[in-house]
Amino acid sequence: MKTQIPTSIQDLKTAITEEKLSGKNICIHSSIKSFGGLENGPQGIIEAFLKEDCTIIVPTFTDKYEVNPEKNMMPMQNGWDYSYKIESCCDEIYSIDSVEIEIKDMGILPTTIVNANGRIRGNHPLNSFSAIGKNAEKMIKGQKPLNVYYPLEKLVDENGYVILMGVDYNTLTLLHLAEQKAGRNLFRRWAKDEQGKTMMAEVGSCSDGFTNFSKYFNDKEIAKERMVGKSLWKIINAKELLAFATTLIKENPNITMCDKKCLRCLDAVKGGPIM
User: What whole-number distance in Å separates Cα of residue 128 and Cα of residue 151?
Assistant: First the structure.
């Protein structure tokens, strides 16, 4: 049996330098399994990017702190069935020091980063982003419950990049920001604030339909593809992506619709919650 040679840290550094990503702020969505084998696992990715002076941003979402809404916090068209009750509400209050994360949904790299020394985590109880690297604080510190995509806006402002490592566009959180820029209100969910009172927090829509963008991105060569080991990377300039995707959503609102035409997708296409 032929032994699989793992993707080395040097292989990663070569990809970073050849794609002129050194020193950049980069939001990564990844499948570690896509590499087949990876030297030092997710820590190898962190090491390679930090050695090239990059700052890594990852989504570190968690459902643990979500609670049921109060009566004055139930906007219409909110992608939510208000007859549904969360049975396992947590009494804990979220903190930026928390290491809670939805490991299955977020993956191994975000889990590694949220547990790393020196990482910065955003102040959002449900959809936090975390970053590690020289610009981590600058990229994250403005995130708040009602400013969920601050890290992505900073990524755009700083001419940063998104890399999809072995995953598809349905993981691309930046497309939620494009929905907002196209005029949609973000959905509201609920958590406890620092005083233990229920508050509303912005969250994104369903992302299953985001694979619908693939054809348009391919036609305009929005993403540059590169094999790194066995992992197919899609390397995307955040500013170019946001501008193009925002226009697409304005011209064709149904482009974000998933095959199931779920409640979140239906309400998002209508413009999101009526506030």
Answer: 9
Structurally, how many domains does the chain consist of?
A: 1
Q: Give the pLDDT score at 4.
A: 66
Write the pLDDT tens digit of every residue in 68-78. 999 999 999 99
Q: What is the pTM of this model?
A: 0.95
210-238 average pLDDT score: 96
88 pLDDT tier (thresholds 50, 70, 90): confident
Q: Is residue 275 part of a domain?
A: no
In a domain, 200, yes or no: yes
Instruction: Give the residue ranges of DSSP H helices in 98-213.
Output: 103-106, 108-114, 136-140, 150-157, 174-181
d(CA 49, CA 28): 11
Which domain range does residue 15 map to? 9-268
* Residue 1 domain-assigned (yes or no): no
